[in-house]
Amino acid sequence: MDSVLTAAPRWWPAPAKLNRFLHITGRRDDGYHLLQTVFQLLDYGDRLAFSLRDDGAIHRVTALAGVPAEQDLVVRAARLLQEAGGVEIGTDIRVDKRLPMGGGLGGGSSNAATTLVALDHLWNTRLGVDTLAELGMQLGADVPVFVRGHSAWAEGVGEQLQPLDLPNRWYLVLIPPVTVSTAAVFSDSHLRRDCPPITIRDFLAAPESPQWGNVCEAPVRARYPEVAAALDALNALAPARLTGTGACVFAAFETESAANAAWQQLAEDWQGFVARGVNESPLNTVLSTEF
Ligand SMILES: C[C@](O)(CO)[C@H](O)COP(=O)(O)OP(=O)(O)OC[C@H]1O[C@@H](n2ccc(N)nc2=O)[C@H](O)[C@@H]1O
Ligand SMILES: Nc1ncnc2c1ncn2[C@@H]1O[C@H](COP(=O)(O)OP(=O)(O)OP(=O)(O)O)[C@@H](O)[C@H]1O
To answer: What does the entry list as the binding residues for ATP (predicted)?
Structure first.
């Protein structure tokens, strides 16, 4: 008898980001902070798989510690797209997680973006990148950059994006054993909120200048000794930065072997990884090669 072969669903990448620097220039009336930042995408992250269902249900197959299915950004993203596109098909969603939660690597946001982009194809809604980015913004400030899929200069609350081609670098990322609450950092009274605005040209004239720092670093250092220790350990080898509101910290290297050599010196004491910075998201590569 012939066996029925069902193709395994493909894995869709959900890459991490680093904030090369993070300045706060003011605050909106609703309390959200106005930022200037550069998002560097990485060739490293989570993976998601989707199996379509004809009963319309959105079902998360893999558990995520501390996050009930209804609050999971992948479930919320799928629901949002289902409503916006008037879709009657559902999906099972499997998430292969590598990125730490509350790490400042944008894992949850990237999972949401990959869900929007992948299901826009698999459900054939074809809403397009602008509408998907607008939907993504409703889920989190970092979702649009992952939807658009290019390393970028960002302003506003992170939604005003200009694609950037950043120098080729390898990154060593350390993951301190602590979760940082983004909301808590943004409400810290010691957070600097009056950075003078810079232009994209100022940044591009000296992208690796130490004058572009992360204003969250001081309050996060003060609250989380584990993050301070990670910054100190990495700073002994190369200039280290906090990404987003932390907890992860990173340093840039010109070659993979230099990044790996630094990692070898720290791997006994820290969790972490080495990844290549990419200007184009691995998600775009899947779209352009397979769809
Ligand atoms: C710090 C960054 O990671 C930089 O890339 C992002 O701006 C944070 O983006 P995110 O994790 O998607 O954050 P959200 O889930 O949108 O917001 C979490 C909380 O952080 C605060 N928040 C966030 C972004 C922002 N520009 N100003 C804020 O004050 C708000 O209190 C908000 O309720
Ligand atoms: N699929 C998901 N993956 C990760 N976190 C999720 C997910 N769904 C909901 N969350 C919630 O979102 C919170 C933030 O997760 P995320 O991984 O985006 O943090 P982050 O790396 O600090 O991101 P950012 O840089 O955007 O602040 C988590 O603490 C978790 O409660």
So the answer is: 100-110
Task: Clarify whether residues 183 and 257 are in a common domain.
Answer: yes
Give the separation between CA 175 and CA 13, rounded to whole angstroms.
20
How many domains would you assign to the chain?
Answer: 2
> Which H or E element spans position 116?
helix 107-122
Residue 215 sits in which domain range? 170-278
Of 111, 139, 164, which marks where a domain is finished?
164
The number of the ligand nearest the C-alpha atom of 71 reads: 2
Among 143, 164, 185, identify where a domain stops: 164
**Domain CATH for 236:** 3.30.70.890
Model pLDDT, residue 240: 98
User: Is residue 34 assigned to a domain?
Assistant: yes
Give tens-digit pLDDT for 162-183.
999 999 999 999 999 999 999 9
Could you tell me the pTM of the whole model?
0.95
Distance 120 CA to ligand 2 centre (A): 22
Say whether 108 counts as a known binding-site residue.
Answer: yes
- Does residue 103 have a known ligand-binding role? yes
Under DSSP, is residue 151 helix (H, G, I), strand (E, B) or coil?
coil
Is ligand 1 within 6 A of the CB of residue 244? Answer: yes
Ligand 1 pocket check for 130: Cβ under 6 Å = no
Pocket of ligand 2 contains residue 244 by CB under 6 Å: yes
Residue 186 in contact with ligand 1 by CB distance below 6 A: yes
Residue 231 domain-assigned (yes or no): yes
Active-site amino acid positions? 17, 142
Nearest CA to ligand 2 atom 26: 106
